[in-house]
Amino acid sequence: MGGGSPKPYTVDEALVHMGFGNFQILVLAYAGMGWVSEAMEMMLLSFVGPAVQSQWNLSPNQESTITSVVFAGMLGGAYAWGIVADKYGRRRGFLITAIVTSIAGLLSALSPNFVSLIVVRCLVGVGLGGGPVLSSWFLEFIPAPNRGTWMVVFSAFWTVGTILEASLAWLIMPTLGWRWLLALSALPSSLLLIFYRIAPESPRYLCTQGRISEAHAILEKVARMNKAELPSGNIVSDRLNEQHGHSNPFEGARLLSPRHSGSASPISTDSVTGGISSVRMLLSPKLVKTTILLWVVFFGNAFSYYGLVLLTTELSTGRDHCMPTSLHSEKSRTINYKDVFITSFAEFPGLLISAFTIDKFGRKFSMSAMFFLCCIFLLPLIYTQSQALTTGLLFGARICISATFTVIYIYAPEVYPTSIRTTGVGIASSVGRIGGMVCPLVAVGLVHGCHQAASIVLFEVVVFCAGICVMMFPFETRGQELSDSLSSSPKDANELE
């Protein structure tokens, strides 16, 4: 035994051996800046629409379009950037998205008319669609035992972005106007370009591409920065482990163990490089149930999250418009920035709840419980409430939906293998953008039409259905290693019995 060759190790084993350290902190800071950028660009939608509507005398449908086109761009971008990242690497994926987002964001501040604003905001959405690439990239550097906690920390950057945008709007909008808000909100994405050269490629991606020496070099850098040592032996992906008959020392402890080694053939790189092939893998018998349920949950989560952001402004600016004795004046469209600022802080309790429950009770319980609790907070809003109570109920609903938003972006990358991870999360995120496109028609259109009850009932149905779908997920990913290929991805819960 002692004279045998060193035992091969996977990226997961190397990361666990070296632990979470300085290297991951730098990766967290870089990916977090991208998350701040996306949060700011999304949060400003609740401010820019009413401001532009007042200045250019837009109809409610035109105001809703300003938000919807961003989600339309994200719909295509999330799908495209996921495929690009799986084929050409995570770094190239988020480089292109940062370029598109920063340039289009600055151009939108210079828009001379409604049509040009719609075009450039759609391009911003295309760039923002690359957000799942950054989250998957960061995920692939985290040791399995720390994954849930540190992904919640990563999600905190989104909360920082929403609060930063609400603060910026409170300071900028009353004096300098919406153009300055758009310009300043585009600056964080430019930081991704400035520090791009120091961002490493994912060693998991490199392994699946057969670039073992490059993956080893990055892991050596991780070891140096973390003041740790790499395991002895040669690095392999779990796909190569299966192909050559190597056993994974952690598999004995897995709840979600891979299928028998001989039951599936190795997945070739070429089979996952195209969009059609990737979709076929996502809809393969082993993944189809998870994929469809994820799509529904992403739709419900995006619909409810962005809908609540918009409702915070619409329920305060629209209530006077619906009073029989009131006229729809310029004053009635004045945004209550204080309410928006207060409800933005609801995301911090949401993060704390996620951090406490995600590894203690699991991903599925955390999400389903928060979806159902969100329904309870929204129910009283079927009837018009006082401004203080409305803000309080929206605060509670925002806590819940922020928690589900955090957990779903942790769960989704965990259920897909490295070879199609960003594609799978990207397509699920694209489906979520459809929810984002539809929600302005609800939050803006129905409230403007004085149909608040119908709007809230629709939110209740969507959120409740999302909670049911979470309960139907076939497996839990808490504490499990990430897989590199379809044959080593988690089993359906029924197969574990």
From TrEMBL:
Compartmental location: Membrane
Membrane topology: Multi-pass membrane protein
Residue stretches spanning the membrane: 25-45, 65-82, 94-112, 118-139, 151-172, 178-196, 287-308, 365-383, 389-412, 424-447, 453-475
GO MF annotations, alphabetized: transmembrane transporter activity
Primary location group: membrane
Keywords noted in UniProt: Membrane, Transmembrane, Transmembrane helix, Transport
Classification via Gene3D superfamilies: MFS general substrate transporter like domains
Keyword Membrane: yes
Assigned GO CC terms: membrane
Family matches, as PROSITE patterns: MFS, SUGAR_TRANSPORT_1
InterPro entries documented for this protein: MFS_dom (IPR020846), MFS_sugar_transport-like (IPR005828), MFS_trans_sf (IPR036259), Sugar_transporter_CS (IPR005829)
Protein name per its UniProtKB record: Major facilitator superfamily (MFS) profile domain-containing protein
